[in-house]
Amino acid sequence: MSDAAYYVPVPRPATPTSPADDVEIAVFRPTDRTVSTWGPHLQHGAPPSALLARAVERHRPRPDTRLTRLTVELLGPVPLTDLEVRTHIERPGRRIELVVAELWATAPDGTHRAVARGTGWRLETVELPEVARTSETPLPDPGGIAPTDPHASWQGGYIDTLDWRIIVPFGTPGLSSAWVRSEIALVEGETPSGLDRLMSVADVANGVGSKLEPREFTFLNTELTVHLFRAPEFREQDWVGIAAEMSVGPDGVGMTAGLLYDETGALGRITQNVQVRPR
Q: How distant, in Å, are the alpha carbons of 93, 101, 104, 195 from that of 77?
């Protein structure tokens, strides 16, 4: 099995298609590089999120639109089995489109069901450079920051595919921040798009923003929403910046809120619903 990508494409039998077909279907096999921090038999949330984003971005693309908001719902543990990606346009439109992608897997009891769902709004774009602005504080250049591992207990599987440059240590008051990048491709044989690179690591925001000791608590997110006010500008080996903070209520439910960056500057925001439990 490949160790240079999170997923390997699985050929499907050819079936007749027509422009009227609503659903595009592809199958991918996860590699060991997708294994979660929280358990050896499920995938970390980042690779499935990126696979959904890839599907939404590539489904009937139009040069005059851009993906501006992506919400990923993790409907249950994503198993280390073949994933069927089903993508369709739920709300077509000239200026606004809603694209939906689902990951389907076969459970141990033989049932076939959706384990994750991504919905993305694509909006029509126009040239308006004179109004471009952002108020987000820039992050320091990653080139001057030494490599640092995030936590001794975060090892194996997906975590081992990441390279870190920590700016503000995790667990300190206020926003923690880091530059992070994946060292492997999303899909074997493909050059990742800017969105692929971003979504391959965006899900770790809850780890960046957590104030909890991971050997004492789990803080598993059930979803994430990314708003992109600017298109990602990533080249090979470029870094993704994340500045985040987690807030937790007295009933074990929390939320991570954060900023996302490329090396040009801030490009979007991320939120995640988080379930906190003692180990």
A: 33, 17, 12, 23
Any bridge partners for residue 114, and if so which?
A: 104
Mean pLDDT to the nearest integer, 262-267: 94
pTM of the model: 0.93
Q: Do residues 18 and 164 touch, judged by C-beta distance below 8 A?
A: no
Structure letter (DSSP) for residue 140: P
Tokens 């320091």 map to which residue?
140
* Nearest-angstrom CA–CA distance, 203 and 210: 13
Residue range 44-92, pLDDT digits in tens: 999 999 999 999 999 999 999 999 999 999 998 999 999 999 999 999 9
Q: Give CA–CA dist 70/260, Å, rounded.
A: 13
**126: Cβ contacts below 8 Å, ≥ 6 apart:** none
In angstroms, the CA 239 to CA 201 distance is 10
